[in-house]
Specification:
Layout lengths: L1 E4 L4 H11 L4 E3 L17 H13 L5 E11 L20 H14 L8 E12 L2 E14 L15 E3 L11 H7 L1 H18 L2
Parallel strand pairs: 1-2, 1-3
Antiparallel strand pairs: 3-4, 4-5, 5-6
Helix pairs in contact: 1-5, 4-5
């Protein structure tokens, strides 16, 4: 069965494929330029994930998985949250988003013990315009004083997961893919895959 990730972000697709290890053929939207990114107009990660999964599943056959994830920083009242991807503007680079995050933390004078944060991920799975499953995963941690590391993407260079001194961007990819918010969500999804793949 074809398994489509509703994104043009090849980093995200690769990460999902590596974590899944399911033997399923995983594809994304890079081969479908006619399908544009779905506007994330929902008020929660779950709403946004469902919007994306539904939109793509109406255009392409097979199981469609959509991911909406983001960083929630306690000292910033949960920001950037669902706006993580657009935190510094629609076309901002990862470096620009990180720079804004660190500026905002400096504005509120967040000390080292006030930089608690979590990554959250919601996966929605759809087929033929119907949602068939949703799962959620999270990982707790804190925000580093400055970016560190060259792996990963997004806010990985400033997120230090609990139990580690390294940021996600400093950890080996294989290790990050065992402990991340996306990994936690995908493990829950894996438990549902035999049923989902068996449905006609």
């Amino acid at each position: 069965m074809q398994f489509i990730v509703a994104t043009h972000n090849t980093h995200k697709t690769r990460e999902i494929e590596q974590i899944l290890e399911s033997g399923l053929a995983v594809r994304d939207l890079t081969a479908h330029p006619e399908i544009s990114e779905v506007a994330e107009s929902g008020r929660s990660f779950e709403e946004n994930a469902k919007l994306k999964a539904l939109a793509v599943s109406k255009r392409l056959p097979g199981l469609v998985i959509a991911d909406d994830s983001g960083l929630e920083v306690e000292a910033l009242g949960g920001a950037p949250g669902i706006h993580s991807a657009r935190y510094a503007g629609t076309n901002a680079s990862d470096k620009e988003k990180i720079a804004k995050l660190l500026r905002q933390l400096a504005k509120v004078d967040a000390k080292s013990d006030q930089r608690r944060a979590r990554f959250r991920c919601v996966l929605a799975v759809a087929r033929d315009g119907q949602i068939v499953a949703t799962v959620e995963g999270a990982v707790e941690g804190k925000i580093a004083e400055r970016p560190r590391g060259s792996h990963g993407f997004g806010y990985d260079p400033v997120f230090i997961p609990d139990g580690f001194e390294e940021t996600f961007a400093e950890l080996p990819e294989q290790l990050k893919n065992k402990i991340s918010h996306r990994a936690n969500a995908i493990r829950k999804l894996q438990a549902k895959l035999p049923t989902l793949c068996g449905e006609v």
